[in-house]
Amino acid sequence: MTMPDLNLFEYPEEVCSECGNNVFAPGIIFKKVPGVALGEGGDTVTVPIKVAYCTKCGALSPSDREVYDKETAKAAEKKKNSQKPANSGGLIL
Ligand SMILES: [Zn+2]
Question: What is the 10 CA–ligand 1 centroid distance (Å)?
């Protein structure tokens, strides 16, 4: 694949939705996954997720925020659906 001759500065850039800053730094969110969920049993495993965060206010970059919120909501929905009928009457958090 050859890169077309383009000038990146012609294009819009992602800015922080909280403060408007346009500089982001790489960061890592560590998720603690129980061994059972990995089909291994045993100890909880710490799994890193790479994200970018605003260097000014610390908020996640808008694209990472979008993915994070979407996946978190999906996970919550999955958890809700997998609850046993006996629990259907109450919220368990
Ligand atoms: Zn910011």
Answer: 23
* Widest pairwise Cα distance in the chain: 62
46 contacts 32 by C-beta, under 8 angstroms: yes
Q: Are 38 and 45 in contact (CB under 8 A)?
A: yes
Q: Which residues of the chain have pLDDT under 70?
A: 1, 84-93
The model carries a pTM of 0.69
C-alpha of residue 34 to centroid of ligand 1, in Å: 33
Rounded Cα gap, residues 70 and 84, in angstroms? 24
Helices and strands, number each (H, E), in the chain = 1, 2
Tokens describing residue 88: 């259907």
Q: Give, in degrees to the nearest 5, the angle at Cα 38 between 52 and 48.
A: 15
Give the Å distance between the CA of 52 and the centre of ligand 1: 11
Phi, psi of 68 (to 5 degrees): -60, -50
